[in-house]
Amino acid sequence: MGDYAPVDLTAAEQVEFELNGRRVSAPPGTMLVDAAHAHGVRVPVFCYEPRLGPPLGACRMCLVEVEGMRGLQTACSTPVQPDMVVRTDSPLAKDGQDGVLELLLANHPLDCPVCDKGGECPLQDHTFEFGPGRTRFIEPKRHFPKPLDLSSLITLDRERCIACFRCVRFSQGVSEDGALVMEDRGAGSEIATFTGDAYEGRFTGNVIDICPVGALTSIPYRFVARPWDVQNAPSVCGHCPVGCNVELTAREGEVRRVTGRPDPNWEVEEGWLCDKGRFAYPGDRAPGRLREPLIRESRDRARVTTLEEAVDAAALVLGRGGRVGVVVGPEATVEEGFIAQELAAGPLGGAPVQRLGIPGEALAALRALPGAQLGDLDGAGLVLVVGGDPPNQQPVVELRVRKARRLGARVACVGARPHALEALGEHRRAVPGGLAAALADLELPEVESAVVLWDEADLAAEPDAAAALARLAAERGMRQLELGADVNGAGLRALGMPARGVLEAAQAGEIDVLLTVHADPTEGPGGAEWGWALGRVRQTVAIATHASPLADGATVLLPAATHREQEGVYVSMAGRAQRLRAAVPGPPGSAPGWELLLAVMHRLGAPPAYRTAAQTFAAAAAARPALAGLSHDALGALGRPVATPAPPSPNGAPAPREPAGTGLPLVVTRMIFGDAASHRSDALAAVRTGAELVLHPAEAARRGLAEGERVRLRSPSGECALALRCDPAHAEGVAYAAAGPPASGVERLLPPDRGPVRVELAAER
Amino acid sequence: MTADEIRAHIDPIRDRFAEERSLVLPALKFAQTEKGWLSGDDIAAVAEAVNLTTAYVESVASFYDRLYLRPTGTRVVSVCVTLSCMLRGSDELMAALCEAEGLGPHGGTAEDGAVTIQEAQCLGYCDRAPCVQVDAEETRGPLSPDDAASLLEELRAAPRPERLWR
Amino acid sequence: MPIANVVYRHREAGAPLTDAGAYERAGGWAGLKRALAEMQPDEVLYAFHRSGLRGRGGAGFPMGRKASFIPKDSALPAYVVCNADESEPGTFKDREIMEMNPFQLLEGILLAGYAVGAARGYIYIRGEYEHQARVLDAALAQAREGGFLGRGILGSSFDFDITLYRGAGAYICGEETGLLESLEGKRGQPRLKPPFPAVAGLYGAPTLINNVETLTSLPPIVDRGPDWYASMGTEKSTGTKVFSISGHVLRPGNYEIVLHETTLRELVYDHAGGFRPGRDFKAAWVGGSSVNVVGPEALDTPLDYESLAAAGTSLGSAGCIVMDDSGSMVHATLRLAHFYRHESCGKCTPCREGTLWLERILRRIADGEGRMEDLDLIDQVAGRIGGRVLCALADTGILPVVSAIHRFRDEFVAAIEEGGAPRPEPMMEVAAHG
Questions:
Q1: Which residues pair with residue B134 across a beta bridge?
Q2: Residue closest to A399 by CA, chosen among A153, A166, A673, A176
């Protein structure tokens, strides 16, 4: 699990030294443990984890012999020196390694038969390769009460703990929550939280990945599988647009676990995951998962049928039902989006296709600037965060910004929402409409290598700020990294799919049949408008994974595979195209969306040349400049950036957008554990959050609203009722709504393009 | 103890340290002077006063022998049991003190909560062995087992001294 | 067997020197005055070096050389830290300095600061020395009042102030990087070296960290000259050293001797008054407990670094614990093993697990559940600790255990074969103080 740091053996400057009798080299400053690994010599480690900071030298597992130095040295903390003579396999080195393992095993409980880590356990593996076969320790072993649930997700077994400090260093120095610590001293040391508080946060599950023994294990995965029972697939998380690289663990046709990849993607997530991405997978099998194709015969009756029949019926509806409109949701893959476009353009005679997302005209200038990957934050001198709430909406970004700051970057934030990154540097609160002014007010240091993280939704809502930011970034040579709103928004944009068209046509009565792909527009921004518009649509074909109002009423329902169950490509918000892998098939009554769309095309008499997901992607790459040169093979395990779009023609200073409606400007945040995926996953039951309204206490007082009471919000687009919470960190004069699952109705308050809007508030009494 | 009280105590010395974190140990020692031990609320107050997480403060406090995270008696007697004192009768002194209070051989807190008796490691008074430390402040020795009863009586009679330090 | 009063100036004066005026009258501040008036920092540094003074905390590293490692061109401010965490069993020499001659310590810190270009000093004093801390508090206040601390000391351009920082009970905070961690507000767990504190110490800045006695030796070195200091002792063991002696001797206490000119026998029998009638010397841990234990064969060893090393032990902290023939090596060794296990910080595997294991084996032997193979096992476990740990706690903590097994093997064999080692009668007579 990212145990060793990568070593560039091709770098110009190399130090030559001798390793186990061989003459080898590594760049100056490389630690012996990494240099050895790069040359195929494994030096075992426990506490060493390059992502956790400088070496600790605590576990002593990596003891090696260096000629001329007394005793043994820890390879993790000894840099290569010219003509150093190193032996990792001398009798003394072996005795050192054997000794450390013997001492670790002295008090280690013989839990292997009941320990989840067995079979993928570094302690087992190192003991087998470097350690003793028998114990000489006849004393009673140290005991602690066990297991201790640290939270609903992680359980702690203190007896198994080998005090490698990895989890503590993660908590102190990566997520910086400071909640997991070592207590007491010496042989009685134990991992703990403050007086037994639960270890809760956004990134807690990472300690499960880095724990080298079975001390910290996943509660949802407890006793579920042995490593030899499972198949692992490298894929990409589909729960936010960051696109963290993950490993999916499947057993008997179900995804049972999601972890970081053993070889992390240093450009994206570095092997860390947020707890939502890690524990959302049970949602694939939750109630509400669509498993049976349905053909609706009347408003009250739908019959279950086979996929074959349902595809036939869908083709019939689409081919003969009249004018078609196609709506593609942000969880659709590039392949699904492309086939939808081909279907619409070809057999459906030029039907309009739109993605559910944010129209991007105002963002073209920003998107044309040189882009940064998350990995580029490491060397940045300045990280500017404009708008948004990354800790909630693109969680792993928080970890990379914290890392950048530890490496010396200055951090500055400007935006409407209070969030955890603001504490890392200076920040300005900007009410909606005030982003450009707040930006101008910020005094930014002149540094080399600055990166601006900008929120797609917030900048689209304030085109004047977007233009000002693009100018500022261009002037200072800043690279940009978009905090995207939607999982594969960038992928659908790369296909040239607009964010408008079908709603307008439906409103004008020009749509008879609606085809939706992973989309229910009635649940999101402008949901009510969509609902009225779709009242004039006669038939719907829905390709969907989970139940929703639209899917429930569809004429033909085709259950689709989720992103864990199909091949496909997502493009991350940083413009990185990455492959999804099908770890398991979906339920028997479902199929990957791209296969369903392809089948429909065949039924409509327009079979394309491509037949697999890879061929589909190749066709898309040939047809779309943004994807030029890419293929499934080329993307490999780590993905590749798509082409940066060309700069738009200059069009003067865009005007600010007037918010629709009256009342307070509305700011909507998608909370990390508030979304549909978190609500579907029973693993996240204890941490999921619901929707709420947040006001500054003075604002609430002005309106005679009390903490906890239910308040009705009304915008021109929709309405909903939320419980009120008061919090002085928020700005006065603004209504903040934390979105919950779709049924809470918060997103429906926004207009269809998620633009600026105001809400009227009224107590529900 | 409250965060404000702790801040009042450490504010005068803030400028002596390049990092605020250094204040945690003086803050903990000061907070402990109130009851002789540190409750969860005390830890939270220190955390607030020094801008650290409660878990971190608890982690630091738990490292040290003279910071008590569980309730102690009103007076605390720490008996040095390291080699020099052992050679001069520390074990016998410890046994006498524990017996007088009805405690097991490794000490504990008397039933009436007046006194806690515990072992300590070398207190640096080996020339006055066997020695004890009272209230983590005052070291006395040499003591013999015969002195146990009068020592306990004296400690029971007097409240914990108010002497504060910085 | 001459007694010297180089660091114990109060004994020369015949009274505690806790008043700044009294200290001055006793010849105090002369070193500082001379340095500020007549010497460049580099010259003062050279004096340290030329004196041959070795660290008096236990490591014995040449002090001048250590001070010379402080870089002159660092962007970060340099610090001087005084290690007053005296916790080595049997060692109480620094206690007396702080209680009776505190100003000489302050003067020594000032000289060290002047030499390395520091403006801030810290005294990290063990929490248990609360009384001595209060004496130091008062001395610091007086020193400030008298213009010996603060800005423009004694009218020079040298600024320096000292902060007293109290520990809270952890032997490992006497290890220099453990101390720095504790002073930084963390758990006192030692750091990897390199980097050494001289390069990256307190808050990552260049730090000179020295023992109380070491720093207290500096004023006479500067005042009377390094050659005077080096004229005492031997080439490798210059100057004077305070020996704390305790245990079964009749006059436990601190004795400042000229290195090499006193033997262990003289220390034990002449200074410390020897033993009770009918009792005689059995064993001693001469340098604190973290050294090889020695028997009567070592009595005629001169007390200096190289002679004690040649005798198979080491000078260490010079905290000499003496046991007469009423004592039990099994129980003494067990008690020391318990100490190291209790004080282990837990960070590195061999110390955390190894000290626990050694204590358990020794307890079984003492309680009558030992096996003959346990004696080899102790050697083997110790062999997996020595040279493989993060700091010196367990590296030297195994020395008393291994040496006891080897030099007093019969007692351990007897305990194994006879169902345990009987608890010895302690020496209960109250000590007379010399």
A1: B77, B138
A2: A176
Predicted confidence at residue B160, as pLDDT, reads 77
> For B56, which of A181, A185, A197 is closest by C-beta distance?
A181
Decide: C137 and C96 in contact? Cβ < 8 Å: no
What CATH code is carried by the domain that includes residue B34? Answer: 1.10.10
- Provide the ipTM: 0.97
Residue of A nearest to B52 (CA): A178
Give the span between the Cα atoms of A51 and A402, in whole angstroms.
Answer: 12
Total-model pTM = 0.95
Q: Do A184 and B62 touch (CB under 8 A)?
A: yes
Measured CA to CA in angstroms, residue C73 lies from B131, C77, C81, C116, C205 at distances of 48, 10, 19, 11, 12
**Which residues in chain A have their CB less than 8 angstroms from residue B37's CB?**
none
Q: Do C390 and A57 touch (CB under 8 A)?
A: yes
Residue B11: inside a domain? yes
Q: How many domains does chain B have?
A: 2
The one-letter amino acid code at A536 reads R
CA pair distance B99, C220, nearest whole angstrom: 51
Q: What is the pLDDT of residues A408-432, one digit of tens each?
A: 999 999 999 999 999 999 999 999 9
Are B53 and A183 an interchain contact pair (Cβ–Cβ within 8 Å)? no
- Tell whether C392 is within 8 A of chain A (Cβ): no
DSSP-based three-state secondary structure for C409 = helix
> What are the backbone dihedrals phi and psi of residue A299, each rounded to the nearest 5 degrees, phi first?
-60, -30
Structure tokens at B134: 């009272």
CB pairs under 8 A between A and C: 94
Determine, for residues B142 and C131 on separate chains, whether the beta-carbon distance falls below 8 Å. Answer: no
CATH topology of domain A145-283: Alpha-Beta Plaits (3.30.70)
Chain B touching partners, 3 or more CB pairs below 8 A: A, C
C288 beta partners: C286
Comparing alpha-carbon positions, the chain A residue that sits nearest to B60 is A183
Strands A63-66 and A22-26: unpaired
Sequence spans of domains, chain C: 9-230, 240-324, 329-428
Kindly provide the b/e burial profile for residues C38-52, where b requires at least 16 CB atoms within 10 angstroms of the residue's own CB.
Answer: ebebeebbbbbbbbb
Q: Summarize pLDDT for C292-326 with one digit per residue, the tens.
A: 999 999 999 999 999 999 999 999 999 999 999 99
- What domain range includes position B52? 3-63
CA nearest to A393, candidates A491, A482, A283, A522? A482
Contact (CB, 8 A) for B94 and C346: no
User: Please, where in chain A does CATH 2.40.40.20 lie?
Assistant: 664-763
- What is the distance in angstroms between the Cα of A143 and the nearest Cα belonging to chain B? 19
User: Token pair 């496909």 is at which residue?
Assistant: A568
CATH node for C240-324: 3.10.20.600
In 10 A of CB A178, how many CB atoms? 19
Closest CA to A395 of A749, A172, A673, A610: A673
**Chain A interface includes C357 (CB < 8 A):** yes
**Domain C9-230 coded CATH 3.40.50.11540:** yes
